[in-house]
Design goal:
Keywords: Signal. It is built from three helices and 18 strands. With 323 residues, it is mainly beta. Strands 1, 2, 4, 5, 6, 7, 9 and 10 form an eight-stranded antiparallel beta sheet that branches. Strands 12-18-17-14-15 form a five-stranded mixed beta sheet, with no helix packed on it.
């Protein structure tokens, strides 16, 4: 069991990227979360298809991270996580390994979860020779044990914030003989088509737009500082302005960025920005000056949503401590 768990946890390391292998079988994966894309969840990142430095998703877009080895399915808020969103077995199989007991929390220092980056997790073996891995499950919500037989759609736990994460999401990986396989594009290709045969029975539609990042700053930052990360602050003084920003990509005219900031005493401000023209990349910021008595001490959260009509395209969260 210990060896199986170590193999499970190693999947979150930044080492090899996804492999492309021949796959001639029928699609066999069902959606692994009890949510609706574009309404109650979004795909935040795909598998990194770029074998070198940098990142690329399977459609030659930028919706991934360097070395990312799975598909991240994100919830729009911690409140949604607390309400409970089930993680489901993606296909029939046998539970090969589990881990539970890792607390749910926003992670500041990755060294705090060294060896537990995947958090609470389940690994399932399937008759196709593949395995599926489900990471960052909520603490003490696992419903299966090694050796259990599951069907597609069997609840195995709930989405949480355990391991190396600071937002509620499921990190879902597919493996074959130790290699990570992109379920959207498991076979080699020289094109960027989004309708390539994959492992999904009902393939989720590809969405190239998203949010690079979100953060807090002491004032409206320069775009170059947003891109480099220099704009982000983790701590502010009680009399500092409170400014949230977001960096979007491939937004369309008519898309809306929605800012919502909450503090220890509840909502602080909400603001919406209508994007007037298509943008390969842009950023927006909004904030408020400190009240005369200063901000209440504590942790503040920014949730930024990119919406297209009634459809949720992307969501990012940011945190800052005021003291």
């Amino acid at each position: 069991m210990r060896r199986a768990l170590l193999a499970l946890f190693a999947l979150t390391s930044a080492a090899p990227t996804a492999a492309e292998v021949s796959f001639s079988g029928a699609p066999f994966l069902h959606w692994p979360v009890a949510c609706t894309l574009g309404e109650t969840c979004v795909i935040e990142d795909y598998v990194d298809a770029d074998p070198g430095p940098g990142q690329s998703d399977y459609a030659c877009g930028i919706k991934s991270r360097d070395g990312h080895r799975g598909t991240d399915i994100a919830l729009p808020s911690e409140a949604a996580m607390q309400a409970g969103v089930a993680v489901l077995a993606a296909a029939p199989g046998t539970v090969a390994a589990i881990r539970d007991g890792v607390p749910d929390r926003r992670l500041d220092d990755p060294s705090d979860v060294a060896g537990q980056e995947c958090g609470n997790a389940v690994r399932i073996s399937h008759e196709t020779g593949h395995e599926t891995l489900y990471c960052h499950l909520a603490n003490r919500t696992l419903l299966v044990r090694p050796g259990d037989q599951v069907e597609a759609g069997t609840p195995i736990g709930r989405i949480g914030m355990s391991g190396q994460t600071n937002f509620p999401h499921l990190h879902f990986s597919v493996l074959k003989e130790g290699d990570v396989i992109d379920p959207f594009a498991p076979t080699p290709a020289t094109t960027c088509e989004t309708d390539r045969p994959g492992l999904w029975i009902d393939p989720p539609a590809y969405q190239r737009a998203g949010l690079f990042t979100a953060g807090f700053s002491r004032g409206v930052p320069d775009f170059a500082d947003v891109q480099s990360g220099a704009a982000r602050v983790a701590v502010l003084a009680l009399d500092d302005p409170l400014v949230a920003y977001a960096n979007s990509f491939h937004a369309e005219a008519g898309d809306v960025l929605r800012f919502a900031v909450t503090g220890p005493d509840g909502p602080v401000f909400a603001h919406s920005v209508l994007l007037q023209a298509p943008q390969a990349q842009t950023f927006r910021a909004y904030g408020k000056r400190a009240p005369a008595a200063g901000w209440p001490e504590g942790v503040y959260t920014a949730t930024i949503r990119l919406e297209r009509g009634e459809r949720l395209i992307a969501v990012r969260h940011a945190y800052v401590t005021l003291r």
